[in-house]
Design a protein that fits this description.
210 residues, mainly alpha, minor pseudopilin epsh fold, 9 helices, 51% helix
C-alpha cells in the first residue's frame, strides 16, 4: 500500500507541475486568417505542433529548477531538448499573437520611425526581411528585434532559436519551418512570406517595441 500511495503522490505532483506552461489561446478564430493561413494549417500548427512542444516541455521541466522559471528565462538558461521545446513555445506564442484578420498595412509611431531610420523605407525593410527568410536553409525563424537602445536588427535563427538568447527583444517573427506553410503553399515559401504581411497586427508588434 505504501508503494501505491507513493506512486499516486508522485503522479499527482507530476501532473500539477505539468500545468506550468499552457497552450496559448488564439485571439481569433481558426479560420479568421484565411486565405493567408488556412483553418487546417492553424489546427495543425497551433493545435498539434505547438501543443506538442508545450506537453514535451512540461514533462521535461517537472521536478527541475526550470519549472519555477518563466518561459523566457527557460529559453535563456537551458540547452538541448528543453531549449528546443521552450524555444518553440516562445517562438510560436510570439508568432500566433502577431496576426489579425484586420491586419494593418504598415507600422506607425516609434517603430515606423526606427524602421525608416535603419532601412530608409518600410518597403526596403520588407525586401530584406523576405530575403533573409527565403534564404534560411532548412528549418528556423527570421526575427526583427530591438536591442537595449532601441536599435533594430534582423536575425536568422536555426530550428528553435530565439533572439532573447543574445539579449535582444524579438518583436516580429516569420516561421519558415515547412509545417507553417506546406498545406497552403506547398514548397513556395516566398509566396507564403509575401502573404503574411497582409495579416500582421502592427499595433501588437509596435507594443513589443515600446
Amino acid at each position: 500500500m505504501k508503494s501505491i500511495f507513493t506512486t499516486l503522490v508522485l503522479l499527482m505532483t507530476f501532473y500539477a507541475n505539468a500545468q506550468n506552461i499552457t497552450l496559448i489561446e488564439l485571439p481569433y478564430a481558426n479560420n479568421a486568417l484565411e486565405p493567408v493561413i488556412s483553418e487546417k494549417t492553424i489546427e495543425l500548427h497551433h493545435g498539434k505542433h505547438l501543443q506538442g512542444y508545450v506537453n514535451n516541455l512540461n514533462k521535461q521541466i517537472a521536478g527541475t529548477p526550470f519549472e519555477n522559471m518563466d518561459l523566457v528565462e527557460i529559453v535563456q538558461k537551458s540547452n538541448g531538448s528543453i531549449f528546443n521545446n521552450a524555444g518553440q513555445v516562445l517562438n510560436h506564442n510570439l508568432y500566433f499573437t502577431q496576426f489579425s484578420p484586420n491586419g494593418s498595412n504598415q507600422p506607425k509611431g516609434k517603430l515606423a520611425d526606427a524602421i525608416n531610420q535603419k532601412w530608409g523605407s518600410f518597403d526596403n525593410f520588407k525586401k530584406e526581411f523576405n530575403s533573409e527568410s527565403t534564404s534560411l536553409f532548412g528549418s528556423g525563424w527570421t526575427w526583427l528585434s530591438s536591442d537595449k537602445n532601441g536599435n533594430l536588427i534582423i536575425t536568422k535563427e536555426m530550428n528553435a532559436g530565439n533572439p532573447v538568447t543574445n539579449g535582444l527583444n524579438p518583436i516580429l517573427g516569420f516561421d519558415v519551418w515547412e509545417h507553417a506553410y506546406y498545406i497552403d503553399y506547398q514548397n513556395k515559401r516566398a509566396d507564403h512570406l509575401n502573404a503574411l504581411w497582409n495579416i500582421i497586427d502592427w499595433d501588437t508588434v509596435s507594443n513589443r517595441y515600446q
